[in-house]
Structures are given as C-alpha cells and as structure tokens.
Automatic annotation (TrEMBL):
Signal peptide annotation: 1-26
Domain Pectinesterase inhibitor intervals: 26-163
NCBIfam families, per database record: PME_inhib
CDD domains per the UniProt record, alphabetical: PMEI
GO molecular function, one term: pectinesterase inhibitor activity
Protein name: Pectinesterase inhibitor domain-containing protein
Gene3D superfamilies: Invertase/pectin methylesterase inhibitor family protein
C-alpha cells in the first residue's frame, strides 16, 4: 500500500438471489420474513430497507448491484496489493485473489444479465460461483504470513455471511447477503 488512493474499503455488501420470484410484498413483510432467519438480523434489515423497494426482484437487482460494486473494489485492492507488497508469499496470494475476484465480478455480471432475463436458476448458479471464488481467496490466508490489509475483512468481526432459505406461497427463495 503506497498511497491512500490504492486503499479501497472492501466489503461485499450484498448478493440477493432467488430461484423463483413472483410476488410483491410490503417491505416490512419481506424484512420480517427474511431477516430473523439470518445470523445478523439488524444488518439484514438495514440492507433490505435501504433498497427502497419491497419488490423481490427489485431487491435482487439492488443487492447484485451492491455486490458488483464491492467485488470490483476488492479486485482493485487485490491487484494493488499484489503490485506493492514485498513479501513473495503475500504477492502470490494477492495475485491469486485478484484472479478470484475477477472471476467473481464476471459471475455477478452474468447474474445481473440472467436476472434481467428471468433465468433465476442461472442467477443461483452464477452467484454460487461468485461465492466460491471469494471463499477461495479468503482460504489462501489461512496460514501465515498474516494479511494486514483491508482485503481480508472476513477475518474481523465486521464480516458476516447471512444465508437464508425460506418458502413463501410455494415460492422458494434463497437470500445471500454478504458484508
């Protein structure tokens, strides 16, 4: 990290995907149905309420956009760290993470296209791929040397993965919110 412009606050804030989307519900109904089933209900409520819509597809669009923005920030940071670090082990890990985040960005972009086409199964598949890529990056730092950058926010208490599966009116929904 050579200057502040290279430091990007990294936080995957949200991926919201559904296997089937059909109903419009009130914001309170959505929040009260989904968020209690997560490991961090206050964060879930905050994210879903900030979307400004109660439409399930609108929530999916909103959170995919957040995920895309933050995955791109993570990609930029990983590339910067790979370039600036002097530790060869960390350099290799950051380079590998840059590749993982590049794949995750592509997966999220595909999910956005699939959602627009109404192909909810494909949204589920490609967002799962994005999660795998992000997990792969995180796993590279299980052993020393320790990463002290903002890339590994998963290691601190501010990182949560909230996964909920629920059924409502015979429609199956999968919600994944990441910060």
């Amino acid at each position: 990290m050579t200057n502040n412009s290279c430091i990007v606050i990294v936080s995957l804030i949200g991926v919201l995907l559904f296997t089937i989307i059909s109903n419009v519900a009130s914001s309170n109904d959505v929040v009260s149905t989904i968020c209690p089933k997560t490991s961090n209900p206050p964060f879930c409520s905050s994210v879903l309420k900030s979307a400004g819509t109660a439409d399930l597809k609108g929530l999916a669009v909103y959170t995919l956009n957040l995920a895309h923005t933050n995955a791109r920030k993570s990609l930029t940071l990983a590339k910067s760290l790979a370039t600036t670090t002097t530790n060869p082990q960390l350099k290799q890990r950051y380079s590998s993470c840059a590749e993982s985040y590049d794949e995750a960005v592509g997966d999220i972009e595909n999910a956005q296209k699939d959602l627009a086409l109404g192909d909810f199964n494909a949204v589920n598949i490609v967002t799962s791929g994005a999660m795998t890529e992000i997990d792969d990056c995180q796993d590279k730092f299980a052993q020393p040397p320790k990463d002290t950058s903002l890339l590994m926010v998963k290691k601190n208490s501010n990182f949560s993965i909230l996964v909920v599966s629920f059924q409502n009116n015979n429609n199956n929904f999968i919600i994944i919110i990441i910060i």
